């Protein structure tokens, strides 16, 4: 038996019909879908490489688009959180600092992943035919698979705790589900 009382209480604080919340869910789901579809299309057609004159230029352009989309997603996430009520029992220093610590660990995973992979390794260069010499197994890949995805999820979880936001926690679950689906698709 699963006790759903906590989930019922959480949903009592979240208006899932709020336009900002819906936009946040859509932006969260869109991002991994977009980059996976575009990367696979490029792999099959080499159309972006032809348009941009080289695989490197095309990969850098896609990477820039992904970064912009991630900024939009983060903005939508934050706005959806701000428009929903806080959970009074969590609006304390210990929750804020716990969230800050979780965000810091997530940031460490995201930045160290980027440094280990480089720009083209991070932004789907393998789909453009830009291959690394060998598989990256150094930190943070030595600790977990897909550290950039889980680091990003941790950042959103920490952000939600810092703002004592039930809506943020629910949106973080959407982030985790989106990345889990992306990992299955990419694998």
UniProtKB/TrEMBL annotation:
Keyword Transmembrane among UniProt keywords: yes
Q: Which reaction does it catalyse?
A: 1-hexadecanoyl-2-(4Z,7Z,10Z,13Z,16Z,19Z-docosahexaenoyl)-sn-glycero-3-phospho-N-methylethanolamine + S-adenosyl-L-methionine = 1-hexadecanoyl-2-(4Z,7Z,10Z,13Z,16Z,19Z-docosahexaenoyl)-sn-glycero-3-phospho-N,N-dimethylethanolamine + S-adenosyl-L-homocysteine + H(+); 1,2-di-(9Z,12Z-octadecadienoyl)-sn-glycero-3-phosphoethanolamine + S-adenosyl-L-methionine = 1,2-di-(9Z,12Z-octadecadienoyl)-sn-glycero-3-phospho-N-methylethanolamine + S-adenosyl-L-homocysteine + H(+); 1-hexadecanoyl-2-(4Z,7Z,10Z,13Z,16Z,19Z-docosahexaenoyl)-sn-glycero-3-phosphoethanolamine + S-adenosyl-L-methionine = 1-hexadecanoyl-2-(4Z,7Z,10Z,13Z,16Z,19Z-docosahexaenoyl)-sn-glycero-3-phospho-N-methylethanolamine + S-adenosyl-L-homocysteine + H(+); 1-hexadecanoyl-2-(4Z,7Z,10Z,13Z,16Z,19Z-docosahexaenoyl)-sn-glycero-3-phospho-N,N-dimethylethanolamine + S-adenosyl-L-methionine = 1-hexadecanoyl-2-(4Z,7Z,10Z,13Z,16Z,19Z-docosahexaenoyl)-sn-glycero-3-phosphocholine + S-adenosyl-L-homocysteine + H(+)
Output the superkingdom of the source species.
Eukaryota
Transmembrane annotation, as ranges: 20-39, 51-75, 95-124, 165-185
- Protein's membrane topology: Multi-pass membrane protein
Which residues, if any, are the signal sequence? Answer: none
Q: Name one GO biological process term.
A: methylation
Which cell locations does it reside in?
Endoplasmic reticulum membrane
Q: What is its main location?
A: endoplasmic reticulum
Please provide the record's keywords in A-Z order. Endoplasmic reticulum, Lipid biosynthesis, Lipid metabolism, Membrane, Methyltransferase, Mitochondrion, Phospholipid biosynthesis, Phospholipid metabolism, S-adenosyl-L-methionine, Transferase, Transmembrane, Transmembrane helix
What's an example GO cellular component term for this entry? Answer: endoplasmic reticulum membrane
Top-level EC class as recorded in UniProt: transferase
EC annotation?
2.1.1.17, 2.1.1.71
Pathway membership: Phospholipid metabolism; phosphatidylcholine biosynthesis; Lipid metabolism
The record's section on InterPro entries has: PEMT/MFAP (IPR024960), Phopholipid_MeTrfase (IPR007318)
Q: Which GO terms describe its molecular function?
A: phosphatidyl-N-methylethanolamine N-methyltransferase activity; phosphatidylethanolamine N-methyltransferase activity
Spell out the Pfam families in the cross-references.
PEMT (PF04191)
Specify the protein name: Phosphatidylethanolamine N-methyltransferase
């Amino acid at each position: 038996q699963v006790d759903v009382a906590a989930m019922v209480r959480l949903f009592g604080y979240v208006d899932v019909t709020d336009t900002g919340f819906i936009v946040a869910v859509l932006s969260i789901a869109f991002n991994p879908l977009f980059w996976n579809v575009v990367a696979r299309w490029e792999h099959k057609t080499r159309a972006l490489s032809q348009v941009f004159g080289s695989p490197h230029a095309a990969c850098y352009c896609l990477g820039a688009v992904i970064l912009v989309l991630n900024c939009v997603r983060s903005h939508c996430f934050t706005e959806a959180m701000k428009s929903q009520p806080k959970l009074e029992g969590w609006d304390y220093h210990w929750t804020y600092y716990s969230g800050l610590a979780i965000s810091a660990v997530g940031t460490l995973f995201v930045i160290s992943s980027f440094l280990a992979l480089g720009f083209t390794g991070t932004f789907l260069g393998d789909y453009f035919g830009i291959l690394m010499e060998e598989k990256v197994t150094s930190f943070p890949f030595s600790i977990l698979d897909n550290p950039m995805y889980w680091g990003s999820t941790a950042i959103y979880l920490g952000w939600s705790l810092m703002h004592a936001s039930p809506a943020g926690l629910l949106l973080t679950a959407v982030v985790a589900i989106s990345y889990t689906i992306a990992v299955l698709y990419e694998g």
